[in-house]
Amino acid sequence: MNTAEKIEALEKLKEAIKQDESLPLQESNLVFGEGDPDATVMFIGEAPGFYEDQQGRPFVGRSGQLLNKLIESVGWKREQVYISNIVKRRPPDNRDPLPEEIEAYKPYLAKQIEIINPKIIAPLGRFSMNYFLPLAKISRDQGHKFEVEGRIIYPLYHPAAALRSTAVLTDLEEAFKHLPVIISGKTAEPEVSAPEVKIESKVKPEQTSLF
Ligand code: URA
C-alpha cells in the first residue's frame, strides 16, 4: 500500500469503529491513534485516559509527555512514529481495560497494524504486551525483542509505571536507547519466535538479553 492508500484505509477503519455500536465504552470519545502511516515503529498503549478522551488523541497527558521525551531522546520526532492503543475509548475512572473490552477492539487494532505495517511494534505495558505475547511477563521481558508473525515485538514498560518508579524509568530509558539499533538490524536475531508459548521453556530469563 502506498502512503495515500494507507491514509484512506485508516480513515475507513476509523469510520468503521465509529459506526460499530457493539463496541464497549460508547460513552467515551474515540481515540483512534495518530502518526506517520509509514512509520517503522508503532507504540501501542492500553487505553486512553482523561486527557486523551478530551482531545481524541493518544498519549497527550503526563504519560504522553514522558513518551514524547523518550522518543526525542533517541533523535526522533513524535510525528515520525505511530501511536495507538488496544482499547480505543477510555474506561471510566481510568480503570484497567476489561478482557472483553480488549477482545472487542482487537480486530480493529489488528487491521490498523496491517495497514501501517510497521517493522517494530513496541507494546507499552503488560496489557498491550500480552496481546502479542500472551505468556510474557513485563518485568522479565521488557527491553527484549521477540518475533511474532514476521514482526519484531519489543515490549516496554508503560510510561505511567515509569512516572511512579525511578527504577522502572531507568529500565524504560535504557530499553529506548536500543530502539535505533534494532531498527538498523544490527542486533542478533530475535531469540524467540511465535508461538511464544515457548518463552518459558525455551529461554531462561538470564539468557534473553541481547545487549
Ligand atoms: N495510557 C495509555 O495506555 N494510552 C494513552 O493513550 C494514554 C495513557
How does this structure look, described?
The chain is of the alpha/beta class and about 210 residues long. It is built from ten helices and six strands. It has a six-stranded mixed beta sheet. A hairpin with a 2-residue loop joins strand 5 and strand 6. Helix 1 packs antiparallel against helix 4. The C terminus is likely disordered. Uracil binds next to helix 3.
CATH architecture: 3-Layer(aba) Sandwich
* Helix/strand class: alpha/beta
Order of secondary-structure elements: HEEHHEHEHHEEHHHH
Structure summary, number of beta strands: 6
Please give the domain count: 1
Shape: globular
**Total count of helical runs of at least 4 residues:** 10
Bound ligands, named by name, code or SMILES: uracil
Q: Alpha-carbon distance between the termini?
A: 34 Å
Mind telling me the C-alpha Rg? 16 Å
- Look at the structure and name the CATH superfamily: Uracil-DNA glycosylase-like domain
Overall mean pLDDT: 90
What's the CATH class, please? Answer: Alpha Beta
What is the topology, as strand order, of the major beta sheet? 1-3-2-4-6-5
Main sheet characteristics? 6 strands, mixed
What name does CATH use for the topology? Uracil-DNA Glycosylase, subunit E
| Proportion in β-strands | 5-15%
Identify low-pLDDT runs. Answer: 197-211
Helix fraction, binned, reads 40-55%
